[in-house]
Amino acid sequence: LERGLNVVETDLGEWIIQLSGQRPSHMVMPAIHLTRQEVAAVFSRATGRTVNPEIAEMVELARRELRRQFLAAGMGISGANAAVAETGTVVMVTNEGNGRLTTSLPPLHVVIVGLEKLVAHLTDVSPILEVLPRSATAQPITSYVTMITGPVEAEGPDGRAYPRKELHIVLLDNGRSRMAADPVFHQALRCVRCAACLNVCPVYQQVGALFGDVYTGGIGAVLTAFFTDPQKAGDIQNLCLDCGRCREVCSADIDLPGLIQELRRRTVRGGGLPAARKVFWERVLTDRRLFHSLLRVASRAQKPLVKAGRIRHLPLVFAGLTEGRVLPPIAARPLRDLAPSLPRPDSPRGRVGFFAGCLVDFVYPDIGAAVQKVCTHLNLEMVFLQEQTCCGFPAHHAGLPEVAAQLARQNIAVFEESGVDVIVTACPTCAEALKILYPRLLEGDPEWGGRALALAEKVVDFASFAWGHRGELKLAQEAWRCTYHDSCHLKRSLGVSEEPRRLLLASGASLVEAAGSGTWCGFGGSYALDLPEVSRAVGERRLEALTATGAPVVALDCPGCLLQIAGGLEDAGAGVAVRHTAQIVADRLEPTHTR
Q: Is residue 356 exposed (0-12), middle (13-18) or buried (19+ Cβ within 10 Å)?
């Protein structure tokens, strides 16, 4: 372009994007954000005549216009999905045939291929051909698989063969060697650009190309950090919530949420965290007494904002939290104050440690009371340790693993002293922190690594705990209907989805599954504060799916999801109850002897 050459995109979607002056919104379907009416307007401006928004007519127009360009071109430029070192073969996977015309008609063919596309042998191409079309477009095999070894003989417009066809292969580094040498990010070079991660990403579904740069989505943020602009990548990664759906569908087995988290850590380390937040994470959250004292102060300070037991509007920087949702107030008496007075078994046969987490402790103490009621029913004493504090997951998510590790050490020490054999939590995020994050954060620490693993072995989410004692639970069998919402951390990080459903069925429930099971609810803690528009829009889609079931009750296992879904349904006046599985089980228990 700088030399004044006329460069024409020949993929239909890319050509539309070029003519419209926009940028691609998807790695496989670059113009998917445009309607056919908008495409017709683009073609009308480009051709100087009115083009009807009929797909067949527009495709025919594109074929005719691009064929003229193919025949007149002096050079064809292509990429490659694989480049074989053994034979010098370049492999292209396409669906429109433009690749074959680009590589065969012009007298000069230039291939630009990233270093990560190099494979040793021709047989190494087969897995790529199997994975790519299935993951990208759900096809058993793509329409065109083109393999080029050496210059492709072709005829010119006059029908005579070119006397000398040229082929040049340009191997592109552009940050790829640096990525290959990175002990964390090297796995991203396995990406085949199928965009399956985009297709399931709830944030991308809402904001499209705004989530990315040259490459879109979470993988786009990672590639941008190494290939183009690290600073821009730092901004893009803020859109990722770490719901884990991309990791679930990735055919290359890339831990994309983990890479985004590492990218966030490096961004924060480079000064990408506001000073006020840095003070909160590093000075307030790590000081249990100060943190909990501030929560108690907030409980009293919120009184002017509470109407009929709910908060509908928050001022200033907190306003985003009440966009599209009604909030419960901070409890006047947190669980740590209530726990000593709750009923306990007369002669317990064991002791169960309870890790509450911030929301259950200070916003939903009734969930903790429900867990205690279940434990009492099982003749187990629930032990609430006053010295427990935040699990640290929010700090880790914010890019501060050092803060999370400090909190991990605090909680490990507290529960070690308790001597409990099992630790139950009613918050899947806390369960993931204690069970998965702590061993990872403290791996290699000679003093704490083994202790973190020992703690992790004892941790169990409430639904799995209760289902494990199903033979001892005496539940009323009155019929009722509900739908169930899977939390991201419970389903994808902990692999728990059947246990809560079985519990509900055991309690007499008729379970109506909602569309998009396991889709992010839209909350994500501080995400709702930082990006309220995205949080609200994603949440509304989830609420639509849940209410479409017609079930009068939504059951779930995450207090964060409870805050989002219950608040959204109440704000919409849906008249649907939202309850934690622990509350449902506790309410349906047959009477037992307690003191």
A: buried
Residues 6+ apart with CB under 8 A from 273: 281, 398, 399, 400
Which phi and psi (to 5°) does residue 275 adopt? -60, -40
Q: Is residue 377 part of a domain?
A: yes
The residue among 269, 303, 333 that closes a domain is 269
Helix (H) or strand (E) holding 480: strand 480-484
Residue 258: CATH number of its domain: 1.10.1060.10
First-to-final CA distance of the chain = 82
Average pLDDT, integer, range 262-281? 90
Residue among 514, 518, 444 nearest 488 (CA)? 518
Domain assignment present for 211? yes
Domain count, the chain: 3
Residue 486's pLDDT band, with cuts at 50, 70 and 90, is very high
Per-residue pLDDT at 594 exceeds 60: no
Handedness of CA 323, 324, 325, 326 (dihedral sign): positive
Q: What is the DSSP string of 83-108?
A: EETTTTEEEEEESSSHHHHHHHSSSE
Instruction: Beginning with the edge strand found earlier in the chain, give each strand of the sheet holding 577-580 in spatial order.
Output: 509-511, 480-484, 553-556, 577-580
Output the CA–CA distances (angstroms, integers) from residue 19 to 3, 205, 564, in the order listed. 20, 24, 42
- pTM here is 0.90
User: 399 and 492 share a domain?
Assistant: no
Length of the chain: 595
Q: In the listed set 415, 442, 467, which residue is the last one of a domain according to the structure?
A: 467
Find the CATH number of the domain harbouring 360. Answer: 3.40.50.1860
What's the average model confidence in pLDDT over 395-424? Answer: 96
Among 325, 318, 287, residue whose Cα is nearest residue 302: 318
Measure CA 148 to chain center: 38
Give the pLDDT confidence score for residue 593 in this predicted structure. Answer: 52
Q: pLDDT category, 163, cuts 50, 70, 90? A: low
| Residue whose tokens read 């973190």 | 452
Structure tokens at 97: 């045939």
Q: Confidence class of residue 225 from pLDDT cuts 50, 70 and 90?
A: very high
Q: How many CA atoms lie less than 13 Å away from 58 in the CB half-sphere? A: 21
Domain that residue 438 falls in? 290-467
pLDDT, the chain, mean: 93
Q: How far is CA 393 from the centre of its chain?
A: 15
* Contacts of residue 491, Cβ cutoff 8 Å, sequence gap at least 6: 497, 518
Tokens standing for residue 259: 């890479």
Query: Residue 354: its pLDDT value, please?
Result: 98
3-49: pLDDT as tens digits: 888 999 999 999 999 999 999 999 999 999 999 999 999 999 999 99
Query: Is 186 within a domain?
Result: yes
Beginning with the edge strand found earlier in the chain, give each strand of the sheet holding 144-148 in spatial order.
118-119, 82-84, 89-94, 144-148
